[in-house]
Design goal:
Number of strands: 7
Largest sheet: 7 strands, mixed
Distance between the termini: 38 Å
CATH topology of one domain: Aminopeptidase
CATH architecture of one domain: 3-Layer(aba) Sandwich
Shape: globular
């Protein structure tokens, strides 16, 4: 039953589709046309991308769809031009064994914003957005510019548009739950604002808020031993997130799993007086 009033997707024979794997059984052009609606409209307008050919102003394809038959996953990569290193939009979705939709990854970059190479170490090796090895000089510059951990560029402020499209798409498949694993503390707080609740990790989030307050263990660890652990960083989402990225928890940021029921805002707020 539709939660948002979206019409259920069907194939050419009128049979309903219930998963990405079902969509990926369709002809290539049909798959791409359905997945195209996940891309914020502003990207087509702003970067001159044709909605039918997926070509940019130079006449070359700038949108790539990975949606293989036989698999319950899909990926969309949108670049301003084929030669550019970074996507302006990247999303990866997957089916789950529980008839949910997993939002595995989403990036929306401003290609004109300064780039910080936090996704590679100082020798140029890929470091999975700073989760394996760190590039401290680049991280410091990114933090000073107002970015959060794992951000190589400022965004385009289009996640709200994308997420509304994602919810509608999930609803069109009869899926009522979206799940995700936030990459950082700041991601988790953002997801709370979009109505997510926690499968696992809520007690950790509450502990983080409690212990960053005066007298708390994490508050005491903001002792200036690094630029990511300065007094006052506990007052902002980004400050806390950088301190956690720097290891202030004395444990890895892992095991945080969240979910969103379509049409329902969970009302979770683990940082009540937050500011960014």
């Amino acid at each position: 039953m539709s939660r948002l009033g979206v019409r259920h997707l069907v194939d050419a024979d009128g049979l309903p589709l219930f998963s990405l794997m079902d969509v990926n059984r369709l002809p290539r052009e049909t798959r791409q046309d359905l997945y195209r609606h996940l891309i914020p409209e502003e990207l087509f307008f702003r970067f001159g991308i044709d909605r039918q050919s997926f070509c940019g102003p130079g006449g070359q394809p700038v949108i790539e769809f990975l949606c293989p038959q036989g698999l319950g996953l899909m990926r969309i990569e949108v670049r301003r031009s084929p030669e550019e290193r970074d996507c302006i939009f990247f999303v990866e979705l997957a089916d789950t064994p529980y008839q949910q939709l997993e939002l595995s990854f989403c990036i929306i970059n401003d290609p004109d914003a300064p780039r910080f190479d936090i996704d590679m170490d100082e020798t140029g090796r890929d470091n999975c957005f700073g989760t394996m090895r760190r590039n401290l000089p680049e991280e410091l510059k990114a933090m000073a510019t107002g970015l959060s951990p794992n951000q190589v560029r400022a965004g385009l402020k289009l996640f709200s548009d994308f997420f509304a499209r994602l919810e509608s798409f999930a609803d069109s498949l009869g899926i009522d739950t979206i799940v995700a694993e936030p990459l950082s503390y700041s991601n988790a707080i953002r997801y709370e604002e979009y109505g997510f609740d926690y499968i696992t990790g809520k007690q950790l989030m509450l502990m983080i808020d409690r212990e960053f307050r005066p007298g708390g263990v994490l508050h005491q660890r903001l002792d200036g031993t690094s630029q990511f652990r300065l007094a006052g960083m506990e007052k902002t989402v980004r400050g806390r997130s950088w301190a956690i990225h720097d290891g202030v928890l004395n444990q890895t940021w892992d095991g945080i799993k969240i979910y969103k029921t379509l049409g329902v805002h969970a009302g979770v707020n683990t940082f009540p007086d937050q500011q960014y």
